[in-house]
Design a protein that fits this description.
The protein is α+β, with helices and mostly antiparallel strands and about 375 residues long. It contains eight helices and 18 strands. A five-stranded antiparallel β-sheet has the order 1-2-3-7-4, covered by helices on one side. A five-stranded antiparallel β-sheet has the order 9-8-10-16-11.
Length: about 375
């Protein structure tokens, strides 16, 4: 089983949902970075269970402890070991699943692959393992902060309730103002009510998270097999319950002609004037690190061209399926393939999106930092 993510900046994770702890080892993190423990813990708190009435009722402090790689508040450049202790497992709730397979869950595939599985909370297949990703992502964010790179994700759709695709229409500083983590407060209330109703029914629902990366320099990624969008896609599709990924205009771009879709190059001065005329913020149109005189008039490409970042905002969308574990009766089979019924017990999210927002940001941050470090090896 491969448990390591990244190339130069790497995260190796360990743990199970109902085990003693979840944790990891981060290697390749630059030395001398200020380690803001309050910020790191706040990132974990955004992912923490039991944070609102529309998330799982499991109560965990998710307090992270660093075991190595940090001295006097700074990274030392050596491996950073960390762990988060599990404290509120209710393993007995899963006893009726010991010999049954949950529909659309990893129970069956894990059992067939390894010949053994930890049925308690899904074991290694549990979304609780994403704690380690949030720690790695928080550290990556601290490094990227020094480079002027920011990453913001938000819930843009729950079920059929959806925001407009243009993220410029929203104030992304208001995402934490509601439990859904949506920048449109009216839509957020509709989403919250829908999730609450689905939870009351013992059912689940999916949706979409949008992510925006600002300040990314030109040239991150590789032009052949490790294109930047391919790496971001792999990172997102590696998150539990993710079923789709698109960046830029995505599938909607297939209806346009090339003359409509191409992002035309223009002098940066023209972009500045156009922005002033339309009272738009220049941050998304002009990157500080981009070639001094050149930008693009539009950004249908989503900030990536030829597999490399082009200095514009990178934006993408991640589709999450409804959670597989339902608190209602379902048909299934036992270990021998005999038909039976399953009514799951335990504490489960009716919708993963509110708690998945920081996970999406974390994976994006690790991809960008890893590629920034790789880019330093290209030329003297």
């Amino acid at each position: 089983m491969r448990n390591t993510f990244g190339n130069l900046f790497t995260l190796t994770t360990f743990g199970e949902s109902h085990g003693i702890a979840v944790g990891g080892v981060i290697d390749g993190f630059p030395a001398g970075i200020d380690i803001d423990m309050d910020f790191i813990q706040s990132e974990l708190n955004r992912r923490r269970p039991g944070q609102s009435h529309i998330t799982t009722a499991r109560k965990e402090a998710d307090k992270v402890e660093f075991l190595s790689g940090v001295f006097e508040g700074k990274s030392t450049g050596t491996p950073i070991g960390f762990e988060v202790r599990n404290q509120n497992q209710h393993s007995q709730d899963y006893e009726n699943m010991r010999c049954l397979f949950r529909p659309s869950h990893a129970d069956f595939t894990y059992n067939e692959k390894y010949g053994i599985r930890d049925h308690r909370g899904g074991g290694r297949s549990s979304a609780r393992i994403t704690i380690a990703r949030c720690v790695g992502g928080a550290l990556a964010k601290l490094a990227l902060r020094q480079l002027g790179i920011s990453i913001t994700a938000y819930t843009s759709q729950v079920g059929r309730i959806a925001l407009e695709k243009d993220y410029h229409q929203y104030n992304l500083n208001t995402i934490e103002d509601n439990p859904v983590r949506c920048p449109d407060q009216v839509k957020a209330k509709e989403m919250e009510d829908l999730i609450a109703q689905v939870k009351a029914d013992g059912d689940t629902i999916g949706g979409i998270i949008t992510c925006v990366i600002k300040g990314c320099p030109v040239g991150l990624g590789e032009p052949e097999f490790d294109k930047l969008h391919a790496q971001l896609g792999a990172a997102m599709l590696g998150i539990n319950a993710v079923k789709g990924f698109e960046y830029g205009e995505g599938f909607a771009g297939v209806t346009a002609r090339g003359s409509e879709q191409n992002d035309v190059f223009i002098p940066k001065a023209d972009a500045a004037k156009a922005s002033e005329d339309s009272n738009e913020n220049l941050d998304s149109a002009i990157n500080q690190d981009v070639v001094a005189r050149i930008t693009t008039k539009s950004n249908h490409s989503g900030g990536i061209q030829g597999g490399l970042s082009n200095g514009q905002d990178i934006y993408f969308r991640v589709a999450f399926k409804p959670v597989a574990t339902l608190l209602m009766e379902q048909d299934t089979v036992d270990l021998e393939g005999n038909p039976t019924k399953l009514t799951a017990r335990g504490r489960h999210d009716p919708c993963v999106l509110p708690r998945a927002v920081p996970v999406v940001e974390a994976m994006a941050a690790m991809v960008i930092l890893d590629n920034y470090l790789l880019n330093k090896t290209i030329k003297l």
